[in-house]
Amino acid sequence: METFIRNLLVVTAWTLPLLWLMERIRFPTLVAFLLTGVLIGPAGLGWIQETPEIHALAEVGIIALLFVLGVEFSIESLAAVGARLPVFGTLQILLTGLLGGGGLVLLGWPLRSALVVGLATSMTSTAVLLKVLQERRELDTHYGRWAVGTCLLQDMATPLILLALPLGQTGAPIGLDLGPVLLRGVVVVAGTLWMTRYGMPWMMERIARMGASPDFIRAFVLVWALAIIGTVHALGWPIAIGAFLAGLILSETPISHQVVAELQPLRDFLMGLFFVTLGLQFDLRLFRTAPGSLGALTVSLLLAKALAFGIAAAAVRLPLRTALTLTLGMPYAGEFSVLILNTASGTGTLSGDLYAQALAGVFLSLLAAPFLTYLAPGLAARWAVWMARDARAADVQEVPRQTEALDRRDHVVIVGYGINGENLATVLRAVQIPYCVIEMDLGRAQSAARAGHPVIIGDALYAHVLHRAGVPTARMVVIAMADRLAAVRIVRQVRQMNPAAHVIVRVRFVRDVEPVLKAGADEAIPEEFETSVEIFSRVLRAFHVPRHVIQLQTNLIRQNHYGLLRGMPLTESAARRIQSILTASVTDLYQILDGSPAAGQTLGSLNLRGRGGATVIAVARGEQVFMNPGADFVLRPGDTLVLVGTHAELDRTMTILEGRDGGEGQRAGWRVTSNE
């Protein structure tokens, strides 16, 4: 136990500074864990050996990862990308296995071992990919959706690959080994589906009726997960598959989100230990004894996977830029690659030397992963434009029944048919303003065509696509896509073709406003703070600020390109304007309803001016209007009071009229409208 505590202390002590360094240089944290294992392991300083205890914790990390994957699994997330994703993902995995395995066979590897390593490297690190996409705010881009969907499919394929590893090892034909496996598979899958649909919801309903405490529910989830894992393992399947199935059964229950939230910190820590153990196993001597073989292995696996991505993308006809981004940005291995290699080593499929070489190849590809993912979008955009010069007709097509739109003038070009693009197209059609839509995603383009919109299928990054949409003669171009880097390039292209066009760009965050404005856009609409503008507008309306005053304030913020919301100092003149708006005297209306605390009272007894500060300058009663009513004027239900005062005075006066200033009465008045 003392040795275990010492080793754990060494691991965490070395990981902390490396984590800090990775955060500063914006590298994924898994690189810190990998380097920690290399530096302190047997191949480095030799301060720590791979102990069974640390290895066991790392295995628990893998179990936790697969369990959470099962809980988070959603068919809807796959369906959102489109029907082509399963075909693309399946092709990529199979082609990587075949091409990678074939390359290793040429390097002298046994066929079975080569195919296993090829399939292992078909996985991509979800941790690296998600971190980079989140940092670059590209999760909602076209290639971002495809990348995440592909990773999810790869993760889903991991249990199937693990199941296939022992096949044919008994010496009997694979068909004889496959029969019992398939039979057990049918039983497990049927049981899992039944438990997911009926069994677990029934149990959770009974637990809810018991009024069980959170601690009881946590204990139930733990016992349940261990029971499923033990049952599946007893059937001869890997523990990791049991963890995934246990999570899958819980995925349709109301507690699934809470389970993920509570497991996340523990899972991340244990996964960190898993990568440390990977670093501990890395043999630096390979660089001295067989640097050529190690380099050839790593390069062949990266090239095989990149080629597999390219072929799969061509098979499902992905847009050129998306295909290039996936090909250049996702050829590295992942967490589940190590799990597959470890399982293959345990079953004897991989010998010790081959396992060490394969592990080293995975390690090196993971070190290259951040660079590949960061550089891929920019390189893909440049290459796509260059490649498209000689293949203009291949990347653009127009829906046949919209050919009359080829002679477009004085129209609106909408780039991107997401929610914003769809709504804009619908409104423009309703008010009979000519327009056309450019969409690179085939599924979305077909959806737009079915809705009756004129659609051009192509990538707006290409000049010939913009020409086809009539950008040189357009009055306005609206870029409604989420890809910030592409939006900047498109704005520059539009400006070259049509300097007079009014260009509006949708961006996700306020910090993205400046780059698109510098590129030549007339307006940039950030989703992030348009929401904030709507929120503070509603708050100000609740405090009886007139609508024209609210509009002035929102205009001030937009005129300063959202500088106030970004924390940038306002100009002195703008600050004075806001101050005058906030302190100005304004008018508001208040109607007395039946049951109002103010009904039946005189203005003198209410003392609105003395207590609230606002003045009643008129009272409307039916067809009569009483100007400057006196202190003896009695208020009746149905009266409408015209109040004047500052925003704060109006708010205090409304509180008095509603009987809320002293905690008495119920609200029975109604603010009619602001006098603008």
Describe this protein's structure.
With 676 residues, the protein is α/β, with parallel strands linked by helices. The protein has 3 domains: 2-164 and 182-383, Na+/H+ antiporter like fold; 394-507, NAD(P)-binding Rossmann-like Domain (Rossmann fold), CATH 3.40.50.720; 585-676, Alpha-Beta Plaits (2-Layer Sandwich), CATH 3.30.70. The chain contains 28 helices and 12 strands. A 7-stranded mixed beta sheet has the order 1-4-3-2-5-6-7, with helices on both faces. Strands 10-9-11-8-12 form a 5-stranded antiparallel beta sheet, with helices on one face. It is globular, with a radius of gyration of 33 Å.
List the helices and strands and how they pair.
Elements lengths: L1 H23 L4 H12 L11 H21 L2 H5 L4 H23 L4 H10 L5 H10 L6 H23 L9 H37 L3 H21 L4 H12 L5 H26 L3 H5 L1 H25 L4 H10 L5 H12 L5 H37 L7 E3 L13 E4 L3 H12 L4 E5 L2 H9 L4 E4 L4 H6 L7 E4 L4 H14 L4 E6 L5 H7 L3 E4 H16 L4 H13 L12 H12 L2 E7 L10 H4 L1 H4 L3 E7 L2 E4 L12 E6 L1 H11 L11 E6 L2
Parallel strand pairs: 2-3, 2-5, 3-4, 5-6, 6-7
Antiparallel strand pairs: 1-4, 8-11, 8-12, 9-10, 9-11
Helix pairs in contact: 1-2, 2-12, 3-11, 3-12, 5-6, 5-8, 5-14, 6-16, 7-8, 7-17, 8-15, 8-16, 9-11, 10-11, 14-15, 14-17, 15-17, 16-17, 23-24, 24-25
In short:
This protein is of the alpha/beta class and 676 residues long. It has a 7-stranded mixed β-sheet, with helices on both faces.
